[in-house]
Write a structure and sequence with these properties.
- Two copies of one chain form a homodimer.
- With 484 residues, chain A is mainly alpha-helical.
- Chain A has three domains: 152 residues, MgtE N-terminal fold (Alpha Horseshoe); 101 residues, CBS-domain (Roll); 174 residues, Tetracycline Repressor, domain 2.
- In chain A, strands 1-2-3 form a three-stranded mixed β-sheet.
- In chain A, strand 1, helix 12 and strand 2 form a beta-alpha-beta unit.
- In chain A, helix 3 crosses helix 5, helix 7 packs across helix 9 and helix 8 crosses helix 10.
- The first copy, chain A, starts with 13 loop residues before the first helix and ends with a helix.
- In chain A, 46% of the residues are buried.
- Chains A and B meet through helix 1, helix 3, helix 12, helix 13 and helix 15 of A and helix 1, helix 3, helix 12, helix 13 and helix 15 of B.
Chain lengths: 484, 484
């Protein structure tokens, strides 16, 4: 297949597509409502025809759209309209569209299909694509699918299902075109012509020996430009970037970025070719990863269908809110310890959120830097101490600058110089705490093999809240004699 | 050029590279220190030799590395070591390595080079690559460069420099291979063989007419598989995804993802070919965008060199801390309005951060959802109201659930049922506020053409903090009679 969609001159704009579908749906609903309201049989008939006409038009519009565009439209429609549009999509396109929609929307579409429809949809797909859908398919459909496949495909599906989510094995496909090293380019070309077409994103062929072991790759470029009489062995590239199925997908994505790859062979421990990784799978993975980072920073468990039910949304947001509740309770109890002090000087209650808030912001800045540096492999035992020193210096300097500002603010408001000094001291100490924890938390999580991005923001904010309240109210208690 | 790096069998691990360089550097420093400490001339000589030997070894190691790998190593080294390694890199590789390093690190490297070195480095690059470096180059180097280029390249560089940062024009390159429609594939192939090699990421040739207008594209696949006697016009794909230089880069990136493109032509208003966009430029752009989203969420102005000076870091973090300071002052004054109430019941001071904190978390969840949906084009005037209703329902339900928990907590701690009810009411109201503002803020920013991602988290937190304190302390003041 070519990767050239045969339908759009300039690239399609999702908003244009959506406008078109929505305006047809609106006409359809308008008519449906009319039919519903007016119970006269004559009207019913006429309106029913108009109604059908809109649906037919919608049908044509959808047929002309690229599957990825249909997917975007489905994601942007509320559940009722979504299922109406989904019914209008040709059954043989169901599989490819299911692959394109987000997890949450896929779930809603699959729920509306029976086992036969699902089986038919899955059978239009490649093994690696079926594996991508599998987590959302009912067990009986997967069983039926496994039985319907031939031995090689069944084995591939089973192994594809066995790879962990963030591994190269889960991203790779099986569309590799292989040739032998001992033939001429001319022979290889004749073989290709018999295939009629090459898989998407084929920029190189894989050269394997009799046992399926990878000997090199033959870029299509060389096949085109080199002498047809030459042997594959003499023209192929022997030093190749290869991956293992169990490799981390993030590392593979970085290798694709660094070396500007379009496709790369995946080999097993004995160097036998088992699959291929393509840049489009890598791009999807990068997008999905950056999405899930953003979601977890905001405290969402997973991608949410914006039109999912209220109850589903509550569940999705539950986990982080619960953690946040615990940290808020702790902060509350820290303040509770100092109720006496606050009773003596109520101004402290008004000032304390400043210390906690700016500490949280500064801690989040530090932790984001460190999480990124860890992800990019920039942190090394040798330079970790340098980083610590730097972050602590930044915090100390910021503490002096911002601390004197908040101190001045407190002094001007309440006319007590000692209160200003306590604010300044507390601010500096809380920024130092934020810096130390902002470096330590992700480094420790990394050391113990956890993803430092997940929950780091919640953790650092918890520390700077409770810590900030403790430092500020503690200092105020110590120096209460001068504050009264 | 092939995109197959000729050096690594399995993909290189940045940590291995870094380990190797660091251990050589460590040996080097060790020796340098010894030389420094022992002032005997004999030792000096011997150690000096050993010292040179380590540097020579480092030289070899660096020469064998892919430019992208050298870039990663430079980013992970503190300034002193970084410049030492940079000096060891062959001058003719300076240009390609400067392209690969992050903006902040590039700045530090460029600062260490004189005009002649910079000019020499830039002259090894393509026009579009020079344009990428240009913002960091001194004005006199750019002038010298413009003078050294031929007329076509100068015109290209000037137009490349004129495109805004997030446009297709800024991402595109000029490595297009063009053919005519009226020749046979055989003739086209002969022409290609004369070129000897094709630019990276060439998966299609561009078919243009006499005036340079795009008539179609010829995928390399078709060139390989179709009858060599056929005319280009009969084999080429005429419906092509094309871009304009002024198109938004984000839209282009989404089109690459949707249609799994490897390269695409960029045309002007009269459909004349002006450049080409490739998937590697798109991948870099996606990575950079998701990075800058994360940075702005955390309140960092830009990508930071983790080893930059303390003063530079303070400046980078300054802007958001200042905004945060203003919002914290406002929240503090809101509390200040209720000092009387807090004076009567100090427990309120301990409980108020719970209301503000959970409101902020919930608001950030909503705003993240909406920002993503806007970016994906999922929000449409027709469904905006549905979204509002849904988010408000989720907030109301969460308010009841979490509100009763915090209410119970307050009641158990302080033994006052009315305090529990005030907590529950304040929590529900603050979550509703968070939902309304979490939907409205990004929608309004989007409507007025601003990027809804930037600063949204700071804004929503400001609203839920000040709003939460106001609601909670206001309710407490109203019902003080029952709380005393």
């Amino acid at each position: 297949m070519d990767d050239t969609p045969e339908k759009s001159k300039a690239h399609d704009n999702i908003e244009d597509n959506l406008d078109q579908v929505v305006s047809l749906l609106r006409k359809h609903h308008l008519v449906a409502n009319l039919v519903h309201k007016q119970d006269m049989p004559h009207h019913d008939l006429v309106e029913g025809l108009v109604h059908k006409q809109h649906l037919a038009e919608l049908h044509t519009v959808l047929d002309d759209m690229h599957p990825a565009d249909v997917a975007r439209v489905l994601e942007a429609l509320p559940l009722g309209d979504r299922l109406l549009v989904w019914d209008l999509v040709k059954a043989e396109r169901d599989g490819e569209i299911l692959l394109e929609v987000s997890d949450a929307v896929r779930e809603s579409l699959i729920k509306s299909m029976d086992s036969d429809e699902l089986l038919a949809a899955a059978e239009t797909l490649d093994t690696d694509e079926i594996a991508d859908l599998a987590p959302d398919l009912p067990q009986d459909v997967i069983q039926d699918l496994l039985e319907s496949l031939d031995a090689q495909k069944r084995a591939r599906l089973q192994s594809a299902l066995s790879y962990p989510e963030d591994s190269v094995g889960a991203l790779m496909d099986y569309d590799m075109v292989t040739i032998r090293a001992d033939v001429t380019l001319e022979v290889a070309l004749r073989y290709l012509r018999r295939l009629k077409e090459l898989p998407d994103q084929t920029d190189k062929l894989f050269v394997v020996d009799r046992d399926g072991a990878l000997r090199g790759v033959m870029p299509l470029q060389r096949l085109l430009l080199q002498d047809p009489e030459a042997k594959v062995a003499d023209v192929m590239a022997e030093e190749v970037v290869t991956f293992r199925p169990q490799d981390d997908a993030t590392d593979a994505a970085q290798a694709f970025e660094r070396y500007d790859l379009v496709s790369a062979p995946v080999v097993d421990a004995r160097n036998r070719l088992v699959g291929r990784l393509t840049v489009n799978a890598v791009v999807d993975y990068i997008r999905q990863e950056s999405d899930s980072d953003m979601l977890s920073i905001a405290g969402l468990r997973e991608d949410e269908d914006i039109f999912s039910s209220v109850w589903k949304s509550v569940q999705n947001r539950w986990a982080w809110l619960a953690i946040n509740l615990v940290t808020a309770f702790i902060a509350s109890r820290v303040i509770g310890m100092f109720e006496n002090t606050i009773g003596k000087l109520v101004a402290l209650a008004a000032l304390m959120p400043i210390i906690a808030g700016i500490g949280g912001n500064s801690g989040n800045q530090t932790i984001t830097m460190i999480v990124r540096a860890l992800a990019l492999g920039q942190i090394h035992p040798d330079n970790a101490r340098k980083l610590f020193t730097k972050e602590i210096s930044v915090a100390a300097l910021n503490g002096l600058i911002w601390g004197s500002m908040v101190g001045l603010f407190a002094y001007l408001l309440y006319g007590k110089p000692a209160l200003g000094l306590v604010m300044m001291g507390a601010m500096t100490l809380n920024l130092l705490l934020a810096a130390v924890m902002g470096v330590s938390i992700p480094m420790l999580m990394h050391k113990f093999g956890r993803d430092p991005a997940v929950g780091s923001s919640v953790l650092i904010t918890a520390v700077t809240d409770s810590g900030g309240f403790f430092i500020f109210l503690g200092l105020a208690t110590l120096f209460m004699a001068y504050l009264g």
